[in-house]
Amino acid sequence: MNFVEWTAEMSVGSDALDDHHKMIIDCLNDLHPLLETHAPEDKVLAVMAKLEDFVLVHFSQEEQDMKRAGYPDWQAHKALHDSMYDVVFALKSDIQNGENVDAQRLFQLIQDWLVTHILGEDRKYVPYMTDPAAKPVAQWKRSNGRDC
Ligand SMILES: [Fe+2]
Ligand SMILES: [Fe+2]
């Protein structure tokens, strides 16, 4: 059984971004038992490297989509992404440096990412991505050279 499951209530109204979230959740589910069983460092680092890649690609795509959709708080959202990336990077560095990464810290990462971020922050931009009424504002801003 997976440690975390993607559910329909996590959907952000974009198949591409939902797929990213699912891939990130898969990575976290792969990582959890490795840490619990103190698996060899190279196995843990391989999953961490994949997670880091997915997170970077996802954040970049999500930031572009938020700007394009005219979501007004995209910069504050980007700052949250930057701090989440710092957590992933620090975790990977700790493993590389032979530090003991405890399950509590991983759990915190998952909680911050899933509960606070996808269900909280990511869902705030959903109306801008899905509501056609929000589009003209974004188009107006772009045609007037405004970067949201
Ligand atoms: Fe996000
Ligand atoms: Fe996201």
Automatic annotation (TrEMBL):
<dbReference type="InterPro" id="IPR016131">
    <property type="entry name" value="Haemerythrin_Fe_BS"/>
</dbReference>
<keyword id="KW-0408">Iron</keyword>
<dbReference type="InterPro" id="IPR035938">
    <property type="entry name" value="Hemerythrin-like_sf"/>
</dbReference>
<feature type="domain" description="Hemerythrin-like">
    <location>
        <begin position="13"/>
        <end position="128"/>
    </location>
</feature>
<dbReference type="GO" id="GO:0005344">
    <property type="term" value="F:oxygen carrier activity"/>
</dbReference>
<dbReference type="InterPro" id="IPR012312">
    <property type="entry name" value="Hemerythrin-like"/>
</dbReference>
<keyword id="KW-0479">Metal-binding</keyword>
<keyword id="KW-0813">Transport</keyword>
<dbReference type="GO" id="GO:0046872">
    <property type="term" value="F:metal ion binding"/>
</dbReference>
<protein>
    <submittedName>
        <fullName>Hemerythrin-like, metal-binding</fullName>
    </submittedName>
</protein>
<dbReference type="Pfam" id="PF01814">
    <property type="entry name" value="Hemerythrin"/>
</dbReference>
<comment type="similarity">
    <text>Belongs to the hemerythrin family.</text>
</comment>
<dbReference type="InterPro" id="IPR050669">
    <property type="entry name" value="Hemerythrin"/>
</dbReference>
<dbReference type="InterPro" id="IPR012827">
    <property type="entry name" value="Hemerythrin_metal-bd"/>
</dbReference>
<keyword id="KW-0561">Oxygen transport</keyword>
